[in-house]
Amino acid sequence: MGATGDDIPWQRRRSSESTSGDIGGADADAGDSGRHAGLRSYLGFVGTFKGSVVLVVACFVVSNVALVVLPVFIGRFVQALAGMADSTDGVYRYAAILIGCNILHDLTWRAAEILYLRLLNDRGYEYENILFRRVINERYPYFVGKFTGKISSYIGLLGREFWEILETTCFTYVEQEIRVPSIIIIMFSVNLYSGRTFLLAVLLMMAIGRHTVRLSSRAEKRLADEVSELDGYVIDVITNFVSVKSFRQEGTEHEQVIRRRRTVIEAARRS
Description:
Shape: elongated
Distance between the termini: 50 Å
Order of helices and strands: HHHHHHHHHHH
Number of helices: 11
Strand content: under 5%
Number of domains: 2
Structural class: mainly alpha
Helix content: over 70%
Number of strands: 0
């Protein structure tokens, strides 16, 4: 066996695997990469508790629907008030519906918040555990030539990103998915011209937004890479503090951190 370890059988078998530094999904192969690898990883992990996600999202949907239909019943209530001289039944009926919708919205929103905290809030930390297990179980060649501190930083970064995506989906995206179509329907109910104008504006916003989001995504990806590079460098320097102190490299390492920080700031300005 040579000094370089070229004759180690398992190293020859794994030499072409796990060399890109990508961290795969919960059930994906460690060397899996490609377009939207991170998103596929997130969705694969969400599939392991999709029942909880469906339950929480359903509560948010019911809560937002109860709020969206209010303008319709408010209009009916105003009409009933205008004809109150003939009968008061419609006034009481629509008043009860409005009160019921508000109560339903408040109860389901609070229930959704509680369910989110109980069922989904801890999932981001579990995702970090899975990432750590996948990385630490890799064989030795995976870590050769890699910035180990950067890998550590990516594990925490991906966990935080997963938590933010999950939270934004429940508290923001679900609401928008309900509200935007309802506004389009209301605009068409006013008149056809208003509906077409609003729908065209929404489609134009989506077309322009897709282009700008693509550019923003590239800038955010570069920023995330630079931040992880800096975090990993700091982690490695502090971990190897004995060598730093022994060779009196404190000033040099500080200058390196400042230089890398400038790169991060430059990337942040473009993100």
